[in-house]
Amino acid sequence: MTGRPLRYRASQFAVELTVAVAIAIVLFPFVFILATSLKPPHQVAEPGVWWFEASFANWAAVLLHSDVPANILNSLIVSLATVAIALLVGCPAAYSFSRFKAGGPARFTILSASMMPPVILILPLFLVFYHLGLLDTLAGVVVAHLTLVMPVVTWFLIGFFDDVPRELEEQAMIDGCTQFQAFVRVILPTVRPGLAGAGVFGFVLSWNDLFYALILTGGESRTLPVAIAGFWTFRGIDMGKMAVAILLAVVPVLIVSFFIQKHLIRGLGGGAIKS
Amino acid sequence: MSGARLKTLHKSFGHQEILKGIDLTIEPGSFTVLLGPSGCGKSTTLRILAGLETQTSGEVWIGHRDVSALEPRERDVAMVFQNYALYPNMTIARNMGFGLKARKTPAAEIRTRVTEAARMLGITELLGRYPRQLSGGQQQRVAIGRAIVRQPNLFLFDEPLSNLDAKLRVEMRTELLRLHRDLAATTIYVTHDQEEAMTMADRIVVMNAGQIEQIGRPDEIYFAPVSLMVAGFVGSPAMNLIDGRISTGAVETAIGRLEAKADAPAGCGIVLGIRPDDLFFPDSLEAVDQALVLDCHVEFIELLGARGIVTLRNGDTRLRGVFEERYLGRFAEGEQVRLALSRHRLHVFDRSSGRRLALAHAAPA
Amino acid sequence: MHLRFRLILPLAAVLAAIMVYPLAFSGWISVHDYRLDRIDDVAFEGIGNYAFILTNPPFWNALTNTVVFVFGAVSIELALGLGLALLLRRMVHLPNTARAILLAPMFITPIAVGLMFRFLLNSEFGVIPHYLAALGIEVDWFGPDLALFSLILIDVWQWTPFMVLMFLAGLEALPKAPFEAARVDGASSWLTFRHLTLPMLRSVILVALIIRALDAFKVFEYVYAITRGGPGDSTETILFYIYKTGFRFFRLGEAASMAFVLVAVVLVLVIALYVAMRRRPGQAP
Q1: B40: which DSSP letter?
Q2: What's the DSSP call for residue A178?
Q3: At A82, which helix (H) or strand (E)?
Q4: Domains observed in chain A
Q5: Distance from C4 to chain A by nearest Cα, in Å?
Q6: pTM of the predicted protein model
Q7: Which residue in chain B has the smallest CA separation from A175?
Q8: How many whole angstroms separate alpha carbon C80 and alpha carbon C86?
Q9: pLDDT tens digits, A30-43
Q10: What pLDDT digit, counting tens, does each position of B37-72 carry?
Q11: Counting beta carbons within 10 angstroms of the beta carbon of residue A244, is it exposed (0 to 12), middle (13 to 18) or buried (19 or more)?
Q12: What is the value of ipTM here, to two decimals?
């Protein structure tokens, strides 16, 4: 009588324990980096030390006496501009691909574009920006990031528009809208959560990019990932400050990511998964 | 209120011909049901009428206007979809008023009309809610309310009740009829449910494979189906169909020989149709009307309440009959029973063309 | 113009300017001896660059490293991801919190992940070697033998969550009835997994695999953050090698031709992905 529940409870315990271990593995680096950012400078290189006098010297140095705040601002401007343009341009196109026939080749093109390795585009972009004087400007990074973000955002949105029943806009058209009005007044508000999800995902893509920013930015326009990479070079390393910069790059993204996980599933699947 | 007209309407998707020349006149104030199996073109016809699809050729008239080339919004029709198509981001009140708002109706008038329609449908307390907070039946009412508010030329319904459960479906049927009577609005209603069509329509248009099979009042469709398709599609349980052949001066079938002249040459293959309601006890039928007497073996009896379905066998032919409760006592499973057919209730169809054949009975002996 | 074209027009124009044109330009560069330090002296090479890279050992080394990296990382991620997704669905306590935490790594900028692990695994002051040493295990995570494997582990840490995400969604979308039928039939959980879950999840698995493989092919940040291709050339991946050729040695022609080889590989995978997505049962083509 008691055998089955006991066995059941044991297996349930094993499940939760395994997940707990996985969570520990995920969290450990963050915890350690947080600890490092708070360690006094002379203890940073002593990994076994967990009890120490917390010091905010690293945080103060990074936030008050370094370029990191400027880098954050750069990253923010680039990411927001990229996402805004990508949504503005991608949204109508995604709707069109989703609604009208012959969306097949278009979908394939968008998918291919979203998977295009950046390395194929960076060489010509670099040369063109050089001639246009766009190297080391935020505008240049935005253009480069658009190649990354726009196809992905469009791909996401096609999936979201596919989920909206056609009858909705037909009803709007019977109710007195043109198809464009139906799109703006009825369909867009319906996919608002999807728009938010795609926007946040695009933001994260742009915010996290190192490759383009590394090659296209120099001094003034450096974005946060490039700045982070600069903390550990052949010239030297400053662990404590780097830990601070890493946390500054990671925490905002983690917070927004919690809100979009649901939409991400639908978007990434791009029709492969119906949520 | 205006009527509508479809003139030689054709529609093809690629190589597939969905509509093969539809001609239909819809009288102002009528309740017309387009009935047919799925894929027969009834929904396409409705969508062309609404302007959601463009006809390949032919004309669409609403009232005295040729609307063939007009956008849906210029046709002044209202439509209720099978999945209701409520705008998920708007409250019920805004859903119902959206059509008027899109046509720039003053806000005060929108409010009056929405309130009035909500009152008619008993959904006043739902006006502030969102569609996702409503049950299927409530959403259905809102969708209907949204159509009423518009006061359009035509009401179009595309299988509006098929997502509801059986009980609610019957309720809504009555409700829709009541609304139709109150508003006297021209209504075109698409369904594949023959019972819905029979109970609601002034006029039924039976469609099959892109063509109109028969147009008529429900009783005409039921008692005088012009073709095998209509006969088989309308009525539940379905009509009994028995193969036969024309001989000189009679119709030979597996269940016996009918002394009647059919409008076809001898040797022509036919199908004899008998509705399950049209099997009688010989004592309840005047002798002059008796066309044939059948000795049947009773296989089983399904009681439906006040009526029952009896499955019978005559030779190798299986027949289903519907009898009122008071007659059911005369049947016993496994026993023999004698039944008769009325000469006024027989349907004979040409087997190859499916067309109805006129039958002239020989004078009773 | 029909509405559908008017809606597409902005996207088409932008993509033409920032993707199609650069792609064509890249193609042009790939058939020229285009060097950043001799920009006025560009000679036509024809397929010279392609012929060169295809016989160039460092290119093949980079390609091999990348393929090993992709296969290693993606297969481990698949197994772990599927396992974790199944476990997460059986969680009773705080399943949503657990999911949110487990998915976190995939949102972090890869350069930060690279640097974090460079710090954690550092043989002098890294915390992991510190404790391993206490257990008597001494390994150099970024030495010649282990460096590529370490990069794979880092990729696994960051991208297993993607697999979890895909499989959670895939499992969620499965119909309930067959599983209930299997329970009634008394099927063991292994039998159910093997004959119901896995076959029904096949298309999702395929899609997740290909998306992840496509992404892993572009690995750059970990290499840049940690090894810069070393020790020797043991962790030189294709993207890093192209980057080095183009922006360290300024040989753009050569870099472009390698990029096109990469694009060819990617395109094959994209076609596979597209077919896999389309072949989903129950969805109209």
Answers
A1: S
A2: -
A3: helix A68-99
A4: 3-55 (no CATH), 66-269 (1.10.3720.10)
A5: 5
A6: 0.83
A7: B99
A8: 10
A9: 988 898 888 887 77
A10: 988 999 999 999 999 999 999 999 998 999 999 999
A11: buried
A12: 0.86
